[in-house]
Design a protein that fits this description.
By secondary structure, the chain is of the alpha/beta class. It is built from seven helices and twelve strands.
Length: 205
């Protein structure tokens, strides 16, 4: 496993690892993520093995822009209101999926992230496809907020770890289910639930 500093060059190197079916650990504004090619069932399967995670529990997918998120998921009015206020940023939206990502779609829904992080943006541009977005930890363990927090058991399964320093928010993203057109906060994280609901209410929903 290689340890890299966050840079344009390391983003390109990690993109090559992803294209080869390998896993990488990357920084975001919330927690460090374990990434894989979200369009490859074998690559995503490695994520579940590395995390010791039950494959019935879907993982989220991250892209670099809100426009790219529209291409893979169905945005309704509530999702649009939240996206206008908080994306890119520390919010995961649960939406109806347009794409059957293996292990990522659960009952037709997909968790979508648009991280507000410069390294992730470069990684996504270099790779050109959706990337798995799940915390870089063994399932049930604490979220890694810096490179040193990432468990050695997990690192044995990855090609590279990108050190981008301590995360900006120090908390996981706030997860909001808007798949049925109504907003329901499933996990309060970096964005308080009250702000999510206020954005929806301000849109008259």
């Amino acid at each position: 496993m290689k340890i890299l500093k966050a840079s344009t060059e390391s983003a390109r190197e990690c993109a090559n690892y992803l294209a080869a079916g390998e896993l990488v650990v990357y920084p975001t504004e919330t927690v460090y993520g374990l990434g894989a090619d979200a369009t490859s069932a074998s690559s995503v399967g490695k994520v579940f093995l590395a995390k010791r995670r039950d494959t019935t529990s879907a993982v989220s997918v991250a892209v670099g822009t809100v426009a790219a998120a529209w291409e893979i998921a169905e945005f309704n009015a509530a999702a649009e209101a939240i996206a206008r206020e908080f994306l890119p940023g520390p919010v995961t939206l649960i939406l109806r999926s347009k794409v059957d990502f293996k292990y990522a779609v659960s009952k037709g829904t997909l968790g979508v992230r648009v991280p507000d992080d410069s390294f992730f943006s470069e990684l996504w541009r270099a790779f050109g496809k959706p990337i798995v977005s799940t915390s870089a930890n063994i399932s049930g363990a604490r979220d890694p907020l810096c490179a040193a927090d990432v468990d050695g058991l997990l690192l044995g399964s990855v090609a590279a770890l990108v050190d981008g320093g301590r995360t900006r928010y120090g908390r996981a993203s706030t997860t909001v289910d808007v798949s049925d057109g109504r907003a329901k906060v499933l996990r309060e994280g970096a964005v308080p639930a009250e702000r999510i609901m206020a954005a929806v209410a301000a849109a008259g929903l």
